[in-house]
Amino acid sequence: MKILVCISNVPDTTSKINFTENDTKFDTNGVQFVINPYDEFCLTRAMWFKEKQGASVTVVNVGTAATEPTLRKALAIGADDAIRVNMESVDGLSVAKQLAEVVKNGGYDLVLAGRESIDYNGGMVPGMLASLLDFNFVNGCVGMEVDGTAVSLTREIDGGNESLTASLPMVVAGQKGIVEEKDLRIPNMRGIMMARKKPLKVLEPVAGENATSIASFEKPAPKGAVKLVAADNIDELINLLHNEAKVI
Amino acid sequence: MSVLVFANSTDGKFKKNAFEVVSYGKKVAEQLGSTVVVVTINANNTETLYTYGADKVFSVTNDALSTFNAKAYASVIQQVADAQNSSVVILDSSIDTLHVAPILAVALDAGYVSNVVALPSSTSPFTVKRKAFSNKAFSNTVIAADTKVIGVAQNSYGVFENPVTGTTESFDATIADSGVKSEKVERVTGQVTIADADVVVSAGRGLKGPENWGMIEELAGVLGAATACSKPVSDLGWRPHGEHVGQTGKPVATNLYIAIGISGAIQHLAGINASKVKVVINTDPEAPFFKAADYGIVGDAFEVVPKLIEKLKAFKQA
Fold first, then answer.
1. Which of chain B's residues have a Cβ under 8 Å away from the Cβ of A230?
2. Do B248 and A162 touch (CB under 8 A)?
3. Per the CB 3.0–4.6 Å rule, which of A76, A185, B191, B253 could disulfide with A191?
4. ipTM score
C-alpha cells in the first residue's frame, strides 16, 4: 500500500492571532508552527499501517520553504519521504489541484488528511482532492481498517457514528479517534537524526487559478467585562439570562 | 439565474439548520435580484420552507438515498443547480453537509467558502465573511469563480420568517453510483446532541470525576440542553470523545454555553467563541474563562449547580 499523508503547516494551538499589512496577512512573528493536529492523527494511523501491514508513507505539503521544518518533523515521526509543492497556498481548490497531481504521478492508493486545518478551517481539501481524482471519500473518520483493497471505516455523525465500507484507492479525512491522542508519536532522537537524511523532494506547482482569495482579516470585537454574580444569588443569574441575555 | 439552497433533513424532518439556510438564501436572492429555489432529499412537509422564503422547492425522493451518501447527495444537488442555472448554492454546516460541499464545489467548478457567518458584504466582487483560525478571527473572502458555493456556519445568521406562496415539484434525479456504502448508523437517541442544541452545559476537571456528572446531566435536562466537556475530561475517559469541545474537538455555536469547572484554555475557548452567551462557574477567580464569559459565578460547582437546578426548575414552572 502506498500512503500519502497531507500535512498542513499551522500555528500551534496556543498561538495568539494577529495580522499585518493592513490586516491582509497573518502575522507569523513569534508564532510556532506545527503539524496540523488533525493531520498528526492521520500520520500516526499511516505509521501503524506501515508497521503492522506493510506500507510506504510519503508526506506532502503545499507551501513555501518555510514549511520544511514541519515536513522534517513528519519524517522524524517515521514517514519514508516528503514532497513539498513549492507554492504559497491561497485557497483550498488550488491546494487540492496540486495534491491531485502528486497523487496521480505517485500512484498512491490511500490518501490521508486531517478533517480541516486549524488555521483556515476550510475543511474542503480532502473532499475536493477525492473528487478531482474520482477516488472514494470519507470525511470525519474516527476508525479505519484496510484488508487488501477493502476498507472499513467509522465516521462521526451528529449524535453518533456510522460504519461504512469502501475500496482503495480512496481519500480519508481523519480526526481524533482514527488513533487516540495517547498514541500520537513524538519524534525521538534517532528519528530526528534519520529524518535529516530522508529525501525531501521539491516540486514546482502546475498552473492553475485560485477560485477564492482573502481580501482582509478581522478579529472579533473586544468583549465587555464579565458580570459576576454572587454564588448565593442564583436568582440574579436567572434574571440576567432571562431578561438581559434573553437565552432562557 | 437563481440561488439554490440545499435544505438538509434527517429521517424526513428539517432541523433549524434548514430554516436558517433558507432564510439566508432568501436574502442573498434579494441582494442579487434573483429567486430562491430549494432542493430537498427524502424530506416531508416541504411546505414548511415557504415560511422562510422558499419560492420553489424541488423535492427529490428516492429509496437509493435513504441513507446519507456524500457523493450521491452532491450529484443530486448538482443536477438541480444545473437545471436551475444556479450561480450561488447555499448549504448548512452540519457534519453531513460538510462532507457533501467540497464534492459539489468541484462538480460545479465553483469557488467554495465554508463557515460563513454573514450575508455577502458585496456581490461584485462576491465577498463573504467567514470564521478562521478556529474562531479567533474572521476573513473576508472573495469568490472569483462564476459559481459560488457557500457553507453557512450554524447559528451565525439566524432563522427569519419571510412567508411566500411557494410550490413544490418533484425532481427526478439520476443517482450516482457511489463507492462508499453505509453499513450501520448508531445514534444516541433521547438526548439533545451538541449539533442541535440551543443550550450546551459543559463541564471540566473541576467536577473531579465521572461519577459527578449526574448533576450536569440534570441541569442539561432542565434546560433542554446538550452536555459537553473539556479536552482533559474526554482524554481521561470520563466522558465520550463526541462531547469534547474545543479547537480539535467539536465546535459549539449555541445561544447559551454554560461552562462548569472549566478553566478556559485558549484551545477550549476557540471551540466555543461562536456561542452567543457564555456563563462560567469556577472556584478560581483567575480562571481565563472569566475573561471570555458574559456572566460568571466564582464558586464551588458542587454547591452552585444543585442550587441552579432547583432555581431553574422553579423558574420553568412559574
1. 297
2. no
3. A76
4. 0.96
